[in-house]
Structure formats: C-alpha cells, structure tokens
Design brief:
167 residues, Glutaredoxin, alpha+beta, five-stranded mixed β-sheet, binds FE2/S2 (inorganic) cluster, 5 strands
Length: 167
C-alpha cells in the first residue's frame, strides 16, 4: 500500500500521514532508526501515543513487520500504544532518584493532580509514568514533562510551580 491509500481515515488524516512521511523521509526510512522515528511520530499525535492505524502505516511505509513495531513500542518506556495526555510527566525510578526522594516527588504529583502512575487526569491534560534514568541525575529528584527536564524538586511547592507552567 502506498502513502496515499490510507490517508483521510480515522486518526490517520492526510495531514498526519504527511507529517509521518516527512519524519520517515528525514530518517531515510532507516529501520535501525525506528525508535527515533516512532518517538518523533508520537510527538505529533495528540495524547502522545502510537495508534494502531499509525503503527500499521509505519509498518507498510518502512516494510517492517507490524510485530516488530510493537516490540519496540513495548520495550521503550517513552513509547506508548495507548493514549496518554497533553502533558506526559515522567518520573525516574532509577537508583539515584530513588535515593534522592522520587517517592516524595511521586506523592506530591499524585496529591496535586489526583493520579497515580499509568493514569491520566480526567480532563486528559496530564499523564504520570515511571521511566528509567533520563540523564538528569545531577539535578535529581527530577521529572520530565514532554521531554523537558525539571530538577531539584524537593518540595510540594516546587512541584506545583512546575506543573503550573503546563496549563
Ligand atoms: S537516576 Fe534519575 S535521572 Fe538519572
């Protein structure tokens, strides 16, 4: 199937298909760059996930088995096949952050937003999830929101001040 045959159906609009084509072309359809391709695609989809239609489209465009696409999605914590939210809050659960207080940080986020890990707020605005180290150990405890790191979050007030930036 070529790129025009699936355009205009469901979530895979013509506009989204064009964006996906642009991303795949940017990576020169290199299957060894599949993680980066899927991350970039996920970034342009509302609620930041890879819908089934999109996974199938990428599979066809890149001539990669659909099962391999899902292997990658399930292996990488930063990828999701279920809708998340406008703002994806990632909380590191690696050793350094455990030592520096990621549990308190998690409790503060849960208290402010009323969600636990793997949940979205009712308005679909925030999603909370654990992830492996994202390289912010020097400013731990830290969170990452839509890819942006916020560190030194040692009080509930500091967490709230960060969350208030994402309305
Ligand atoms: S250990 Fe948490 S960001 Fe590195």
């Amino acid at each position: 199937m070529n790129s025009t045959e699936t355009k205009g159906f469901g979530i895979l609009t013509k506009d989204l298909a064009t964006k996906i084509d642009t991303i795949i072309n940017y990576y020169q359809s290199d299957s060894t760059k599949l993680v980066g391709i899927l991350l970039d695609i996920q970034d342009v989809i509302p609620k930041q996930y890879i819908p089934r239609e999109v996974a199938s489209y990428v599979s066809e465009r890149m001539n990669i088995p659909l099962s391999k696409i899902y292997d990658v999605i399930s292996f990488y914590a930063a990828l999701s096949d279920v809708p998340r939210a406008d703002y994806v809050i990632q909380l590191c659960d690696s050793v350094v952050c455990k030592v520096t207080g990621n549990t308190d940080l998690r409790d503060a986020i849960s208290s402010i937003l009323g969600i636990n890990e793997g949940e979205a707020t009712a308005d679909g605005k925030y999603w909370l999830e654990y992830t492996p180290c994202f390289g912010a150990c020097d400013v731990s405890p830290a969170i990452r929101i839509n890819g942006k790191v916020h560190g030194y979050l040692t009080s509930k007030d500091s967490v709230k001040a960060v969350l208030d930036q994402y309305q």
